[in-house]
Write a structure and sequence with these properties.
The complex is a heterodimer of chains A (247) and B (817). Chain A is of the alpha/beta class and 247 residues long. Chain A contains 8 helices and 9 strands. Chain A has helices spanning 2-27, 31-47, 49-52, 59-67, 99-109, 126-132, 145-157, 194-198, and strands spanning 88-91, 94-96, 116-120, 137-142, 163-167, 180-185, 200-212, 215-224, 230-235. Chain A has a 7-stranded mixed sheet. In chain A, helix 2 (31-47) runs antiparallel to helix 4 and helix 2 packs across helix 5. The longest helix of chain A has 26 residues, at 2-27. Chain A starts with a helix and ends in a 12-residue tail after the last strand. Chain B has 3 domains: 1-209, Growth Hormone, Chain: A (Up-down Bundle); 297-550, Rossmann fold, CATH 3.40.50.150; 620-808, MFS general substrate transporter like domains (Growth Hormone, Chain: A), CATH 1.20.1250. Chain B contains 26 helices and 13 strands. Chain B has an 8-stranded mixed sheet, with helices on both faces. Chain B is globular and about 85 Å long. The two termini of chain B are 32 Å apart. The interface between A and B is large, with 60 and 61 residues. Strand 9 of chain A pairs parallel with strand 13 of chain B.
Chain lengths: 247, 817
Amino acid sequence: MVRTSIGVFWVAVALSLAASVLLRAADDPFKPARDRMVREIEGDVRRTSERIGKAALDPLVIEVMARVPRHEFVPQGQRSQAYDNRPLPIGYGQTISQPYIVALMTDLLKVGPESKVLEVGTGSGYQAAILAEFVREVYSIEIIGELAETAAERLKKLGYGNVQVRTGDGYYGWKEHAPFDGIVVTAAAGHIPPPLIEQLKPGARMVIPVGGPFFVQQLMLVQKTESGELQTRQVLPVAFVPLTGGH
Amino acid sequence: MAVGLAVFCIAMALLGHEILLMRLLSIVQWHHFASMIISLALLGLGAAGTFNTLFQKWLLPRFHGVFGVNAVLFGLAIPLSFSVAQHIPLNPLEILWDPRQWLHLLQTYLVLFLPFFFAGNCLTLAIARFKEEVHRIYFFDLLGAGFGALGIVALLFVFPPWECLEILSAPGIAAAGLVRLDLPRRRSRWAGLALVLLGSGFPWLWQQGKAPPGISQYKGLSTALLAPGATVVAQATSPLGWLAVVESPSIPFRHAPGMSLLCASEPPPQLGVFVDGDSMSPITKIDGRLEPLTFLDCLTMALPFRLVQNPRALVLGAGGGMDVLLAKLHGARAIDAVEMDPRMISLVKDTFGEYAGHLYSAENVKVHAAEARSFMARSTASYDVIQISLLDSFTASATGGHALSESYLYTVEALRDAYGRLAPGGILSITRWLKIPPRDSLKLFATAVQALEGAGVSNPGNRLTLIRSWSTTTLLIKNGDLTAADLEGIRAFCGERAFDIDHLPGGGSGEGNRFNVLDEPYLSDGARALLGRERRAFMDRYKFAIEPATDDRPYFFHFFKWRTLPEILASRGRGGLPLMEWGYPVLVMTLAQALVLSLVLIVVPLLFLDRGGGGGGGMGGGRIILYFSAVGFAFLFMEIAFIQKLILFLGNPITAVSVVIAGFLVFAGIGSRCSTALSNAMSPFRPAEPRPASILAAAAGIATLSILYVFLIPQLFTWLAHLGDAGRVAVSIVLVAPLAFLMGMPFPLGLAIVGASRPAHVPWAWGINGCASVLATVLASIVAIHFGFRIVVLLAIAFYGLAAMAVAGTRGHAPPG
């Protein structure tokens, strides 16, 4: 009898465990895909470690990439591909960058829990959400009104209370909240707006992806030293050496 | 005669449509994808050959009806197919990411293939029906094509491309009526006349496109128009391209390529002029104050003005006038500005003259509507500064689609010409966008080294300087060694703006890669290698093609190397795809797809054709394939190579080029018309019998002439460099006429042999030739990229030789019995 009861008890435990796993999966059916995406990013980082100057990204960045629901930021028709390591179209001639590039950009910014970050080019709001997970405030400016509105609603719905989105010209930055500990300029202009450089705190960094839609050629990193000097660095996100072999 | 006219109309509309479609698709998508789509659609002609071979027993007896229906369908398909294709969500940029895009590509091919198929049906039917008079039908075909080539260019000067579709429908539909005019029954003739009238009135009845087509949302114009309040305030079209001027009051353009991070100035308001919806050139607002223009001094392209005072300047590719403004700001005493598109000049000078501060009407500014290369060849002036900034051949493309468009601006010979126009101590300054790893900057450096060596400079490195901002590179080539004062000036200029110096004569290490740090000093290492003895080895080992372009291989924008491809594809997930230089792979993809389809189209009829039908005479199936594909390849190779040679001589004014192309086709047509005469002359006792010997004679003539041209043309063109446009066109036509005349013969002569011995094979032979023509166009570019146009000519001769071998030993007469 006792043995039967113990058996029933263990069966019940096993069933409830299985149910909770199933429920969690039902709660977030995209979790396995997201985990796969993160593993891919980690592998890609390892393979490009020589170029980007590190063997692994900040564990916090990886953790956040594994948490933020990317599928919420892509159009309905693209959801099945939300966790593929590829850029996706979001309408208005804009794209949501490849997750690997998003992770790399976030890592390059080197921001922390107390940071205040400016983003120029909100797009779908995915990059803002990633940043919002581990900085204090994110200010994001988007030229296209419709994109700004949708992104703001989406971020609010997902509980990102520390992101402010506004429609407008990113050229002048967001003076009221300047200076910033980091700036991401995803809507790359022909040149880097001087007001943005001005709004960068000494010691802070700005990251600019250079290239066309679907094609981020390189990441440009602008560093303002503590003494206010500027240095730029081009980060090629690929393990690619144009010259090999020979001497 | 009526059938001839109908064929003329179909061929005219067909060639016009092909050129128009290229124009339209270059606006909607990008140039290189446009070529691919059109090549595949052109296989419609080959497919028509296959279709007619299979169903000729049913089709031929109903010639007039079937021709008419196809002509009407062709006319309707011209505007309709483009309209339907516009609804296919094709985005070539996503093709390596999203497999669905392959389906959309296929859908686009299928839709755009239709007009070519219907037109092909008409032409094949006419050839098959009148096989005894094939030389006449082919004459009308080529004549029509010639007029089509010329006519569409004329049309594009008057109407925007999107309004030309229904105009081209007119001759298509009218052809359906024309073909009935020689029918015996009066009612049929009346019906024919009614159709001719209907066709003529079609452009008024069917008004499809009054607005520009929907362009890809990823092109610059689409993105610019998303800014609040941004509107197109003016537009102009011509065969050179569609110019759209955008005003964006709330989010100004602020075009200041690679501006120094140390400069705090904001560019003044600008209007953006987009060429074919991309490739923006700004018109900068000038209100008389100099202060808003100080941003110009923060660009790498301002460097030459630091070294030369009060220069006489030449700006090549003036566009919206930014370089002219730069020269003016730096006290140039006289400026010659060269811009290829007269409409661009008119926009800056007239339409927005006041906005641009009457820049192009200024006292010391002279604007020339000309192509850069031909301007330099004809000008006798010498300059202290020659400026070429961020200028691409026709339209810029971020994805490297230029690889297949020839550009005579950045060849060794072009740099040598420009160098020759420099006054002693003068500077040629060329600015390019910075790409990591470098491609065009290094290729340009290699080209400059070779050009200087060609000009007899023993130590080119002493005359070159390469500097870099965070997004542009500027190469200076000085006519004379750079002096100590020059070097000091360059160092000061770069130091003040945080620009890096990648090459400076005698420059020690540590000067480059200080401000804008690359993970490796690609450019300075590259420059050093390209100046040293290991140049060849360096270029071989580099993962992009950076060997200098020449006039014979004018593909500056071709950087692709096969051995790099696997690495790029493998790094797709790690942001590797932007390293892909699209032009060449797209060309190869086009060839592969066209080859597979052509093989299907050529082989399928073989399964149904009666192989023994020819008895003992004429050509067998194998010989037919060999002969007609060889003639197709030979004709297109020869035409493409010589037109390329002439483009350089003509200076590329689009009208001159189209006149010469038209001349080529018309003289080939006349050659076709006279081919029977040649055949008869060679066989006076049996005039009705087509003679393979006449083909041999024509091929020998072509070979002799073309070899003569290859050797004589460069010298001839040097002697005639002073000629004006009209003279150049005349000389070109005189050169083209005899060659084209002979080239018009082998096809109808061969077809006559087939027609006499195996009439059922005539449409098949036509189809083979159609497929070969498509393949030849693509293959000619690939051969030219690797080996140059001279080899294209030699291959053309070899193909004519092959064709001659295919007919040698055959007898032209019909089999007995």
